[in-house]
Specification:
Elements (H helix, E strand, L loop, with lengths): L2 H5 L7 H12 L2 H13 L3 H29 L3 H9 L3 H36 L7 H13 L1 H20 L2 H28 L4 H9 L8 H15 L5 H6 L8 H29 L9 H13 L3 H35 L3 H16 L8 H26 L2 H7 L7 H24 L3
Helix pairs in contact: 2-9, 2-13, 2-15, 3-11, 3-13, 4-5, 4-11, 4-13, 4-17, 4-19, 5-6, 6-8, 6-15, 6-16, 6-17, 7-14, 8-9, 8-15, 8-16, 9-13, 9-15, 10-13, 11-17, 14-15, 15-16, 17-19
The structure holds phenylalanine.
Length: 435
Protein backbone atom coordinates (compact mmCIF):
# COMPACT_ATOMS: atom_id res chain seq x y z
CA UNK A 1 0.00 0.00 0.00
CA UNK A 2 0.89 3.65 -0.43
CA UNK A 3 3.39 2.66 -3.10
CA UNK A 4 2.82 5.76 -5.20
CA UNK A 5 3.42 8.01 -2.23
CA UNK A 6 6.64 6.34 -1.11
CA UNK A 7 7.76 6.64 -4.68
CA UNK A 8 7.69 10.44 -4.68
CA UNK A 9 8.72 10.84 -1.09
CA UNK A 10 10.95 13.77 -0.32
CA UNK A 11 14.46 13.04 0.93
CA UNK A 12 16.94 14.87 3.07
CA UNK A 13 19.40 16.88 1.11
CA UNK A 14 22.39 15.76 3.15
CA UNK A 15 23.41 13.42 5.93
CA UNK A 16 24.26 16.30 8.25
CA UNK A 17 20.98 18.00 7.47
CA UNK A 18 19.23 14.84 8.68
CA UNK A 19 21.44 14.56 11.76
CA UNK A 20 20.89 18.20 12.69
CA UNK A 21 17.13 17.90 12.20
CA UNK A 22 16.99 14.83 14.44
CA UNK A 23 19.23 16.50 17.01
CA UNK A 24 16.94 19.53 16.72
CA UNK A 25 14.04 17.32 17.65
CA UNK A 26 15.86 15.78 20.59
CA UNK A 27 17.28 19.03 21.92
CA UNK A 28 14.34 20.91 23.32
CA UNK A 29 12.73 22.39 26.38
CA UNK A 30 13.28 19.05 28.14
CA UNK A 31 17.04 19.63 28.13
CA UNK A 32 16.55 22.85 30.05
CA UNK A 33 13.56 22.18 32.15
CA UNK A 34 13.84 18.54 33.12
CA UNK A 35 17.32 17.15 32.87
CA UNK A 36 19.29 19.51 35.07
CA UNK A 37 16.81 19.31 37.87
CA UNK A 38 16.59 15.53 37.72
CA UNK A 39 20.38 15.45 37.98
CA UNK A 40 20.48 17.83 40.91
CA UNK A 41 17.82 16.03 42.89
CA UNK A 42 18.93 12.48 42.22
CA UNK A 43 22.48 12.17 43.28
CA UNK A 44 24.30 14.28 40.69
CA UNK A 45 26.79 12.10 38.88
CA UNK A 46 24.94 8.97 39.98
CA UNK A 47 21.97 10.09 37.89
CA UNK A 48 24.23 11.20 35.03
CA UNK A 49 25.83 7.76 34.94
CA UNK A 50 22.56 5.86 34.98
CA UNK A 51 21.18 8.22 32.37
CA UNK A 52 24.20 7.68 30.12
CA UNK A 53 23.78 3.93 30.46
CA UNK A 54 20.10 4.26 29.65
CA UNK A 55 20.83 6.37 26.57
CA UNK A 56 23.35 3.79 25.45
CA UNK A 57 21.43 0.55 26.00
CA UNK A 58 17.87 1.81 25.51
CA UNK A 59 17.93 5.18 23.76
CA UNK A 60 20.40 4.49 20.97
CA UNK A 61 19.03 1.03 20.01
CA UNK A 62 15.48 2.41 20.00
CA UNK A 63 16.52 5.35 17.89
CA UNK A 64 18.20 3.01 15.42
CA UNK A 65 15.02 0.90 15.49
CA UNK A 66 12.82 3.92 14.69
CA UNK A 67 15.08 5.09 11.87
CA UNK A 68 15.13 1.53 10.52
CA UNK A 69 11.34 1.23 10.49
CA UNK A 70 11.11 4.50 8.59
CA UNK A 71 13.83 3.64 6.15
CA UNK A 72 12.64 0.07 5.63
CA UNK A 73 9.10 1.09 4.71
CA UNK A 74 9.55 4.66 3.48
CA UNK A 75 6.45 5.41 5.56
CA UNK A 76 5.45 7.10 8.79
CA UNK A 77 4.49 5.33 12.01
CA UNK A 78 0.95 4.05 11.36
CA UNK A 79 1.54 3.07 7.72
CA UNK A 80 4.91 1.56 8.62
CA UNK A 81 3.36 -0.56 11.39
CA UNK A 82 0.59 -1.58 8.98
CA UNK A 83 3.01 -2.60 6.27
CA UNK A 84 5.38 -4.54 8.48
CA UNK A 85 2.68 -6.37 10.40
CA UNK A 86 0.75 -7.29 7.27
CA UNK A 87 -2.13 -4.93 8.06
CA UNK A 88 -2.86 -6.29 11.52
CA UNK A 89 -5.33 -4.10 13.43
CA UNK A 90 -3.47 -4.35 16.71
CA UNK A 91 -0.31 -2.91 15.19
CA UNK A 92 -2.16 -0.16 13.38
CA UNK A 93 -3.71 0.81 16.71
CA UNK A 94 -0.31 0.74 18.41
CA UNK A 95 1.04 2.99 15.67
CA UNK A 96 -1.77 5.42 16.34
CA UNK A 97 -0.46 5.82 19.90
CA UNK A 98 2.48 7.72 18.45
CA UNK A 99 0.20 10.04 16.50
CA UNK A 100 -2.00 10.66 19.54
CA UNK A 101 1.05 11.23 21.75
CA UNK A 102 2.36 13.76 19.24
CA UNK A 103 -0.98 15.52 18.91
CA UNK A 104 -1.43 15.89 22.66
CA UNK A 105 2.21 16.69 23.43
CA UNK A 106 2.40 19.45 20.86
CA UNK A 107 -0.67 21.11 22.39
CA UNK A 108 1.05 21.86 25.69
CA UNK A 109 4.57 22.04 24.29
CA UNK A 110 3.46 24.94 22.08
CA UNK A 111 1.95 26.73 25.07
CA UNK A 112 5.34 26.64 26.80
CA UNK A 113 6.92 27.59 23.47
CA UNK A 114 4.64 30.62 23.52
CA UNK A 115 5.87 31.59 26.99
CA UNK A 116 9.44 31.34 25.74
CA UNK A 117 8.76 33.58 22.76
CA UNK A 118 6.89 35.98 25.05
CA UNK A 119 9.83 36.15 27.45
CA UNK A 120 12.16 36.62 24.49
CA UNK A 121 10.04 39.60 23.47
CA UNK A 122 10.16 40.94 27.02
CA UNK A 123 13.93 40.57 27.24
CA UNK A 124 14.38 42.36 23.93
CA UNK A 125 12.27 45.24 25.13
CA UNK A 126 13.88 45.23 28.59
CA UNK A 127 10.61 44.31 30.29
CA UNK A 128 11.53 41.08 32.06
CA UNK A 129 10.42 40.83 35.69
CA UNK A 130 13.25 42.40 37.75
CA UNK A 131 12.20 41.86 41.30
CA UNK A 132 12.71 38.34 42.74
CA UNK A 133 9.84 38.92 45.14
CA UNK A 134 7.35 39.52 42.35
CA UNK A 135 8.80 37.38 39.53
CA UNK A 136 6.63 34.46 40.56
CA UNK A 137 3.47 36.53 40.54
CA UNK A 138 4.50 38.15 37.24
CA UNK A 139 4.91 34.73 35.64
CA UNK A 140 1.65 33.48 37.06
CA UNK A 141 -0.20 36.48 35.69
CA UNK A 142 1.51 36.04 32.34
CA UNK A 143 0.80 32.33 32.11
CA UNK A 144 -2.80 32.46 33.28
CA UNK A 145 -4.01 35.47 31.37
CA UNK A 146 -5.26 33.85 28.17
CA UNK A 147 -5.47 37.13 26.23
CA UNK A 148 -1.84 37.85 27.01
CA UNK A 149 -0.36 34.55 26.02
CA UNK A 150 -2.64 33.63 23.15
CA UNK A 151 -0.70 36.16 21.10
CA UNK A 152 2.57 34.32 21.79
CA UNK A 153 1.05 30.87 21.52
CA UNK A 154 -0.41 31.80 18.15
CA UNK A 155 2.90 33.22 16.96
CA UNK A 156 4.81 30.11 18.06
CA UNK A 157 2.28 27.74 16.44
CA UNK A 158 2.31 29.76 13.23
CA UNK A 159 6.13 29.64 12.97
CA UNK A 160 6.13 25.88 13.50
CA UNK A 161 3.35 25.22 10.99
CA UNK A 162 4.96 27.46 8.39
CA UNK A 163 8.24 25.54 8.60
CA UNK A 164 6.52 22.16 8.34
CA UNK A 165 4.31 23.32 5.47
CA UNK A 166 7.41 24.00 3.36
CA UNK A 167 8.36 20.33 3.39
CA UNK A 168 11.36 18.25 4.34
CA UNK A 169 14.16 20.10 2.56
CA UNK A 170 12.93 23.66 2.19
CA UNK A 171 11.33 23.66 5.62
CA UNK A 172 12.43 21.16 8.26
CA UNK A 173 16.02 20.64 7.10
CA UNK A 174 16.73 24.27 6.22
CA UNK A 175 15.44 25.81 9.46
CA UNK A 176 16.99 23.12 11.62
CA UNK A 177 20.35 23.86 10.07
CA UNK A 178 20.04 27.56 10.79
CA UNK A 179 18.50 27.31 14.24
CA UNK A 180 20.57 24.39 15.51
CA UNK A 181 23.89 25.83 14.41
CA UNK A 182 23.05 29.16 16.05
CA UNK A 183 21.83 27.34 19.12
CA UNK A 184 24.98 25.24 19.49
CA UNK A 185 27.24 28.26 19.07
CA UNK A 186 25.33 30.38 21.56
CA UNK A 187 25.15 27.58 24.11
CA UNK A 188 28.89 26.97 23.88
CA UNK A 189 29.51 30.68 24.40
CA UNK A 190 27.13 30.82 27.34
CA UNK A 191 28.71 27.74 28.94
CA UNK A 192 32.20 29.25 28.69
CA UNK A 193 30.86 32.44 30.24
CA UNK A 194 29.14 30.43 32.99
CA UNK A 195 32.48 28.90 33.96
CA UNK A 196 33.74 32.38 34.89
CA UNK A 197 30.92 32.93 37.38
CA UNK A 198 31.48 32.45 41.11
CA UNK A 199 28.80 29.72 41.24
CA UNK A 200 30.46 27.54 38.60
CA UNK A 201 32.29 25.33 41.09
CA UNK A 202 29.19 24.63 43.07
CA UNK A 203 27.26 24.00 39.85
CA UNK A 204 29.81 21.42 38.76
CA UNK A 205 29.78 19.65 42.08
CA UNK A 206 25.95 19.70 42.18
CA UNK A 207 25.88 17.96 38.82
CA UNK A 208 28.88 15.70 39.03
CA UNK A 209 29.46 14.79 42.65
CA UNK A 210 29.32 11.03 42.61
CA UNK A 211 27.45 9.21 45.31
CA UNK A 212 27.06 5.53 44.43
CA UNK A 213 24.50 4.97 47.16
CA UNK A 214 22.15 7.22 45.21
CA UNK A 215 21.81 4.66 42.41
CA UNK A 216 18.43 3.28 43.43
CA UNK A 217 15.59 1.67 41.47
CA UNK A 218 13.75 5.00 41.55
CA UNK A 219 16.70 6.89 40.11
CA UNK A 220 17.04 4.24 37.44
CA UNK A 221 13.38 4.53 36.51
CA UNK A 222 13.57 8.33 36.39
CA UNK A 223 16.64 8.15 34.16
CA UNK A 224 15.05 5.63 31.81
CA UNK A 225 11.82 7.63 31.70
CA UNK A 226 13.65 10.80 30.78
CA UNK A 227 15.41 9.05 27.91
CA UNK A 228 12.29 8.89 25.72
CA UNK A 229 11.17 12.44 26.18
CA UNK A 230 14.63 13.81 25.71
CA UNK A 231 15.55 11.76 22.65
CA UNK A 232 12.06 12.21 21.13
CA UNK A 233 11.40 8.48 21.05
CA UNK A 234 8.08 6.67 21.08
CA UNK A 235 6.10 9.28 19.18
CA UNK A 236 7.05 8.19 15.67
CA UNK A 237 9.27 11.21 15.08
CA UNK A 238 12.40 9.29 14.21
CA UNK A 239 10.32 6.91 12.07
CA UNK A 240 9.11 9.88 10.02
CA UNK A 241 12.61 11.34 9.80
CA UNK A 242 13.98 7.91 8.89
CA UNK A 243 11.47 7.60 6.05
CA UNK A 244 13.13 10.53 4.27
CA UNK A 245 16.55 8.89 4.34
CA UNK A 246 18.44 8.14 1.17
CA UNK A 247 19.81 4.62 0.89
CA UNK A 248 23.37 5.31 1.97
CA UNK A 249 23.57 6.17 5.62
CA UNK A 250 24.97 4.42 8.66
CA UNK A 251 22.19 4.56 11.17
CA UNK A 252 24.14 3.49 14.27
CA UNK A 253 26.64 6.30 13.72
CA UNK A 254 23.90 8.89 13.17
CA UNK A 255 21.99 7.72 16.26
CA UNK A 256 25.07 7.94 18.46
CA UNK A 257 25.93 11.43 17.22
CA UNK A 258 22.37 12.65 17.83
CA UNK A 259 22.27 11.16 21.32
CA UNK A 260 25.68 12.58 22.23
CA UNK A 261 24.60 16.06 21.10
CA UNK A 262 21.46 15.75 23.21
CA UNK A 263 23.36 14.69 26.33
CA UNK A 264 26.04 17.37 25.94
CA UNK A 265 23.42 20.07 25.44
CA UNK A 266 21.63 18.95 28.59
CA UNK A 267 24.86 19.07 30.61
CA UNK A 268 25.84 22.49 29.26
CA UNK A 269 22.35 23.85 29.88
CA UNK A 270 22.61 22.60 33.46
CA UNK A 271 26.01 24.22 33.85
CA UNK A 272 24.66 27.58 32.64
CA UNK A 273 21.53 27.51 34.76
CA UNK A 274 23.15 26.26 37.98
CA UNK A 275 26.18 28.55 37.72
CA UNK A 276 23.93 31.58 37.58
CA UNK A 277 21.57 30.39 40.29
CA UNK A 278 24.37 29.40 42.69
CA UNK A 279 26.23 32.66 42.06
CA UNK A 280 23.34 34.33 43.85
CA UNK A 281 23.23 31.78 46.65
CA UNK A 282 19.86 30.46 45.50
CA UNK A 283 18.65 26.90 45.12
CA UNK A 284 17.46 25.82 41.68
CA UNK A 285 13.74 25.52 41.25
CA UNK A 286 12.22 22.68 39.27
CA UNK A 287 10.42 22.65 35.96
CA UNK A 288 9.47 25.77 34.14
CA UNK A 289 10.10 27.80 37.30
CA UNK A 290 13.83 27.92 36.59
CA UNK A 291 13.51 29.73 33.27
CA UNK A 292 10.54 31.94 33.96
CA UNK A 293 10.77 32.76 37.65
CA UNK A 294 14.25 32.22 39.05
CA UNK A 295 16.47 33.44 36.23
CA UNK A 296 14.86 36.68 34.92
CA UNK A 297 15.48 38.79 38.06
CA UNK A 298 19.04 37.44 38.20
CA UNK A 299 19.69 38.46 34.59
CA UNK A 300 18.39 41.91 35.50
CA UNK A 301 21.22 42.51 37.97
CA UNK A 302 24.04 40.81 36.06
CA UNK A 303 26.42 42.86 33.94
CA UNK A 304 25.25 42.55 30.33
CA UNK A 305 22.13 40.91 31.69
CA UNK A 306 19.83 42.13 28.92
CA UNK A 307 22.04 40.39 26.41
CA UNK A 308 22.30 37.26 28.48
CA UNK A 309 18.54 37.09 28.91
CA UNK A 310 17.96 37.67 25.21
CA UNK A 311 20.44 34.97 24.23
CA UNK A 312 19.03 32.59 26.81
CA UNK A 313 15.43 32.95 25.65
CA UNK A 314 16.47 32.90 22.01
CA UNK A 315 18.20 29.56 22.63
CA UNK A 316 15.11 28.20 24.35
CA UNK A 317 12.93 29.41 21.49
CA UNK A 318 15.19 27.81 18.86
CA UNK A 319 15.24 24.53 20.80
CA UNK A 320 11.48 24.58 21.26
CA UNK A 321 10.73 25.39 17.61
CA UNK A 322 12.91 22.61 16.18
CA UNK A 323 11.31 20.07 18.55
CA UNK A 324 7.78 21.27 17.90
CA UNK A 325 8.43 21.06 14.15
CA UNK A 326 9.26 17.37 14.50
CA UNK A 327 6.16 16.68 16.57
CA UNK A 328 3.87 18.39 14.06
CA UNK A 329 5.55 16.47 11.26
CA UNK A 330 4.34 13.18 12.76
CA UNK A 331 0.70 14.22 12.60
CA UNK A 332 1.07 15.90 9.20
CA UNK A 333 2.85 12.97 7.56
CA UNK A 334 0.33 10.54 9.08
CA UNK A 335 -2.42 12.38 7.18
CA UNK A 336 -0.32 12.43 4.04
CA UNK A 337 0.53 8.71 4.14
CA UNK A 338 -2.75 7.33 5.39
CA UNK A 339 -5.30 9.77 4.01
CA UNK A 340 -3.38 10.88 0.94
CA UNK A 341 -3.84 14.59 1.47
CA UNK A 342 -1.32 17.18 0.32
CA UNK A 343 1.37 18.55 2.62
CA UNK A 344 -0.32 21.95 2.74
CA UNK A 345 -3.71 20.57 3.72
CA UNK A 346 -2.31 18.08 6.22
CA UNK A 347 0.05 20.56 7.86
CA UNK A 348 -2.40 23.41 8.27
CA UNK A 349 -5.28 21.08 9.10
CA UNK A 350 -3.38 19.31 11.87
CA UNK A 351 -1.75 22.53 13.09
CA UNK A 352 -5.14 24.20 13.48
CA UNK A 353 -6.67 21.18 15.22
CA UNK A 354 -3.72 20.95 17.62
CA UNK A 355 -3.81 24.71 18.15
CA UNK A 356 -7.48 24.63 19.16
CA UNK A 357 -6.93 21.62 21.43
CA UNK A 358 -3.85 23.19 23.01
CA UNK A 359 -5.79 26.31 23.98
CA UNK A 360 -6.82 24.28 27.03
CA UNK A 361 -3.31 24.71 28.43
CA UNK A 362 -3.28 28.44 28.07
CA UNK A 363 -5.52 28.34 31.12
CA UNK A 364 -4.74 25.04 32.87
CA UNK A 365 -1.84 23.31 34.55
CA UNK A 366 0.23 21.02 32.31
CA UNK A 367 1.53 18.60 34.95
CA UNK A 368 -1.00 15.83 34.33
CA UNK A 369 -0.98 15.97 30.54
CA UNK A 370 2.82 15.98 30.58
CA UNK A 371 2.76 12.83 32.65
CA UNK A 372 0.25 11.07 30.40
CA UNK A 373 1.42 12.13 26.94
CA UNK A 374 5.08 12.89 27.64
CA UNK A 375 5.39 9.87 29.96
CA UNK A 376 3.03 6.91 29.52
CA UNK A 377 2.18 7.33 25.83
CA UNK A 378 5.80 7.75 24.73
CA UNK A 379 6.84 4.67 26.65
CA UNK A 380 3.95 2.66 25.15
CA UNK A 381 4.96 3.85 21.69
CA UNK A 382 8.57 2.95 22.35
CA UNK A 383 7.53 -0.49 23.59
CA UNK A 384 5.65 -1.09 20.35
CA UNK A 385 8.71 -0.10 18.31
CA UNK A 386 10.99 -2.45 20.26
CA UNK A 387 8.55 -5.35 19.93
CA UNK A 388 8.06 -4.76 16.22
CA UNK A 389 11.79 -4.73 15.53
CA UNK A 390 12.60 -7.47 18.02
CA UNK A 391 9.81 -9.90 17.15
CA UNK A 392 8.18 -9.07 13.82
CA UNK A 393 10.84 -7.85 11.40
CA UNK A 394 13.01 -10.82 10.34
CA UNK A 395 16.61 -10.59 11.48
CA UNK A 396 17.79 -11.08 7.91
CA UNK A 397 15.94 -7.91 6.85
CA UNK A 398 17.55 -5.93 9.63
CA UNK A 399 20.94 -7.25 8.58
CA UNK A 400 20.35 -6.19 5.00
CA UNK A 401 19.32 -2.70 6.05
CA UNK A 402 22.29 -2.28 8.31
CA UNK A 403 24.50 -3.65 5.55
CA UNK A 404 25.91 -6.40 7.68
CA UNK A 405 25.60 -10.14 8.31
CA UNK A 406 22.90 -11.59 10.54
CA UNK A 407 25.65 -13.03 12.71
CA UNK A 408 27.42 -9.71 13.30
CA UNK A 409 27.84 -9.30 17.08
CA UNK A 410 26.69 -5.66 17.12
CA UNK A 411 23.55 -6.59 15.21
CA UNK A 412 22.91 -9.49 17.57
CA UNK A 413 23.32 -7.13 20.52
CA UNK A 414 20.92 -4.64 18.97
CA UNK A 415 18.43 -7.42 18.30
CA UNK A 416 18.72 -8.80 21.81
CA UNK A 417 18.14 -5.39 23.36
CA UNK A 418 15.01 -4.74 21.32
CA UNK A 419 13.73 -8.25 21.83
CA UNK A 420 14.24 -8.63 25.56
CA UNK A 421 15.96 -5.98 27.62
CA UNK A 422 14.12 -2.92 26.33
CA UNK A 423 10.60 -4.40 26.48
CA UNK A 424 11.19 -5.76 29.98
CA UNK A 425 12.54 -2.43 31.23
CA UNK A 426 9.66 -0.54 29.65
CA UNK A 427 7.04 -2.81 31.16
CA UNK A 428 8.72 -2.30 34.54
CA UNK A 429 8.59 1.45 33.99
CA UNK A 430 4.94 1.41 32.93
CA UNK A 431 3.91 -0.71 35.92
CA UNK A 432 5.82 1.49 38.33
CA UNK A 433 4.17 4.63 36.95
CA UNK A 434 7.30 6.69 37.64
CA UNK A 435 6.78 9.71 35.40
N1 LIG B 1 12.85 15.95 22.92
C1 LIG B 1 12.17 17.17 23.13
C2 LIG B 1 12.71 17.89 24.35
O1 LIG B 1 13.61 17.42 25.00
C3 LIG B 1 10.71 17.08 23.33
C4 LIG B 1 9.96 16.04 22.63
C5 LIG B 1 9.28 15.08 23.32
C6 LIG B 1 9.92 16.03 21.29
C7 LIG B 1 8.58 14.13 22.72
C8 LIG B 1 9.22 15.05 20.67
C9 LIG B 1 8.55 14.09 21.38
O2 LIG B 1 12.22 18.93 24.69
Amino acid sequence: MAKSITHNREQWQSKWGFILASAGSAVGLGNFWRFSYLVGMNGGAAFVLVYLASVLVIGVPLMIAEFLLGKLTGLSIVSAFRKISGNRKLWVALGLIGVVASFVTLGYYAVIGGWVVGYLGQSLSGNLPRDPATADAAFRIFSTTPALQIVWYTLFSWIVATIVSRGVRAGIEKYNRILMLMFLMLLTGMAIYALTLPGAREALSFMFKFDASKITPLVTLLAVGHTFFSLSLGAGIMIAYGSYLPKKITLPFASIVISVIDVIVALLAGLVIFSIVFSFGLFPDSGTGIAFVTLPPLFAVMPGGTWLATIFFFMLAAAAITSAVSILEVVAVYLMDEWKVSRQVSTWGSAIAIYLFGLIWTANDITLVDKIAGGYLLVLGALAVALLVGWVVPLSNLAKLLQTKATHPVLRGFYFLNRYLIPITLVWLLLSGTF
